[in-house]
Amino acid sequence: MYPIFRLIKERICLDRSKLGLFETHVSRHICWPWDLDPWMELNNGRTLTLYDLGRIPWSLRLGMIAPMRDNRWGMTVAGSTPRYRRRVRMFQRFETHSALIGWDHRFLYMQQSMWRGGEALNHVLLRLATTDAKGIVAPQRLISAMGYGDQPSPELPDWVQAWIEAEAQRPWPPMQVASPATPAAPRTDPQTAPKIAGRG
């Protein structure tokens, strides 16, 4: 189930101060029993869902929502790669950090991470697409609508650029290469097959 009540809590308790374009939004959370997998730790898929609790308030503080509403734009995650390093157990508290990295002609790139006691627990790199009825809206249009004019993106870090290049080589539609066929069992000629003792 989507954590809608936790998202409402984040909205009610949101720090209303405006973030700079590349500043980090920090939110605080608890791993509840319904976030666990069978191994009694924060489920990997739930981790990505809980990142919404940081990303949506981040977009509010950054000033994205109003121009998106005015222009009838949407926002969607167009790709993500998580990395998991430390377990999160039941009732443990942690922080989520959310920040913009930059953009190119199609996507915004941001990163999010979870922390406990100064130690990184996991991290995700995401690309976000602003959309309208015709498809993808150039990120620069959103940045301009947010009041930053023609401000260019900073140069994307090498590790982000490498990820973009790797994604460009990933085939789509996926899984088009057929797996090797399982060899069929050899057929036996009934005329030459050895007879079983005791049978005709």
Salient structural properties:
single chain; 200 residues; alpha+beta; Thiol Ester Dehydrase, Chain A; six-stranded antiparallel beta sheet; 5 helices; 6 strands; HotDog_dom_sf; THEM6_lcsJ_thioesterase
The gross shape turns out to be globular
In N-to-C order, the SSE pattern is HEHHEEEEEHH
Q: What's the structural domain tally?
A: 1
Q: Say what the CATH topology is.
A: Thiol Ester Dehydrase, Chain A
**Biggest sheet architecture:** 6 strands, antiparallel
Mean pLDDT over all positions: 91
What would you say the CATH architecture is?
Roll
Name of the level-1 CATH class: Alpha Beta
Helix coverage percent of residues? 25-40%
Briefly note the structural class of the backbone. Answer: alpha+beta
Unreliable stretches covering 5 or more consecutive residues = none
Assess the beta-strand content as a share of residues: 25-35%
List the total number of helices: 5
Radius of gyration using CA atoms only: 25 Å
Structural overview:
With 200 residues, the chain is α+β, with helices and mostly antiparallel strands. The protein has 5 helices and 6 strands, in the order H-E-H-H-E-E-E-E-E-H-H. Strands 1, 2, 3, 4, 5 and 6 form a 6-stranded antiparallel sheet that branches. It is globular, with a radius of gyration of 25 Å. This is Thioeseterase.
